């Protein structure tokens, strides 16, 4: 006879909750979404993703952003649906979706890119077109290496041997 816990676990597995996914997308930061409004939006998403058990890394400047999300398959699908349905101005351009064994990101990480020499170095490292951050000019592997470079150097990624799930 099956216990309640086993039954719940079995149903969760049928929904793919045991499968970790990574989704990376790029978007444009509209002019209306700057300053305090941007801070409010980012805080809203930090709380929402925490509730969904989705970790995230965001690189953003005044014009563009890259966001990488990691979590269970159903959670990533729900987050993507929310983005598409509630944030029509974002219009996410999916760069990469893959199953992963462990998460790279811990929590909700944000890197606001400025015109500083350090941030220009990150952009140039990933072979972006020029020193300006524009993910629309970058290939998929450039985007993923860019994100890894920014957050790895700050010691903000989870080691390959750990799993927070």
TrEMBL record:
Stored PROSITE patterns: BLUF
Classification via InterPro entries: Acylphosphatase-like_dom_sf, BLUF_domain
One Pfam family linked to the record: BLUF
Molecular function GO terms recorded: blue light photoreceptor activity; FAD binding
Domain annotation BLUF: ranges: 20-111
Protein name per UniProt: BLUF domain-containing protein
SMART domains (alphabetical): BLUF
Origin organism lineage: Bacteria, Pseudomonadati, Pseudomonadota, Gammaproteobacteria, Moraxellales
Source superkingdom: Bacteria
SUPFAM superfamilies: Acylphosphatase/BLUF domain-like (SSF54975)
């Amino acid at each position: 006879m099956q216990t309640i816990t086993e039954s719940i676990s079995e149903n969760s597995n049928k929904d793919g909750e045991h499968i970790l996914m990574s989704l990376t997308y790029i978007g444009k930061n509209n002019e209306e979404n700057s300053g305090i409004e941007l801070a409010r939006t980012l805080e809203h998403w930090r709380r929402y993703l925490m509730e969904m058990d989705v970790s995230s890394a965001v690189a953003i400047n005044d014009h563009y952003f890259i966001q990488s999300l990691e979590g269970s398959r159903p959670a990533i699908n729900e987050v993507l649906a929310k983005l598409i349905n509630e944030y029509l101005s974002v219009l996410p351009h999916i760069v990469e979706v893959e199953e992963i064994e462990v998460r790279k990101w811990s929590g909700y990480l944000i890197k606001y890119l400025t015109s500083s020499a350090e941030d220009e170095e990150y952009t140039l490292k990933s072979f972006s077109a020029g020193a300006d951050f524009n993910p629309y000019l970058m290939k998929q592997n450039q985007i993923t290496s860019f994100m890894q470079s920014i957050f790895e150097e700050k010691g903000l990624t989870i080691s390959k041997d750990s799993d927070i799930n």
